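cron nightly-structures :: item 1 of 1
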Amino acid sequence: MSTSKTTITIETLVNAPIEKVWECWTAPEHITQWNQASDDWHCPRGVNDLQPGGKFSFTMAARDGSMEFDFAGVYDKVKTHEKIAYTLGAERKVEAIFSKDGSSTKIVETFEAENIHSHEMQRAGWQAILDNFKKYVEEKA
């Protein structure tokens, strides 16, 4: 993580084994089911080449069709069941750490903030997606 940019950290504890959490975090058929911050958005398309230098792109779209954008980047480091680090456009770094906590899995995600939205708004949005992920995995696991 760069020290010149503001970083924001969010976390959750998912009541599922790390193997299931990893699968749901990395497989496009799962990602498109949970990757939205609110019910009025969805993720209709996604591609994921999960390896260092691999690219990913997930379309984030308003359900009413009024707006969409691609959340895309390049993987810097992938360590199965432990860590994923990637770079978004504008050279923003993101890191997700996965660790076993009994029969559950803890996820700690740290990202470099952008300069358009408030840090509070960014934290709330990313946390809402992480909370949606937790709910999805716990209902599917």
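cron nightly-structures :: done
DSSP finds three helices and seven strands in the chain.
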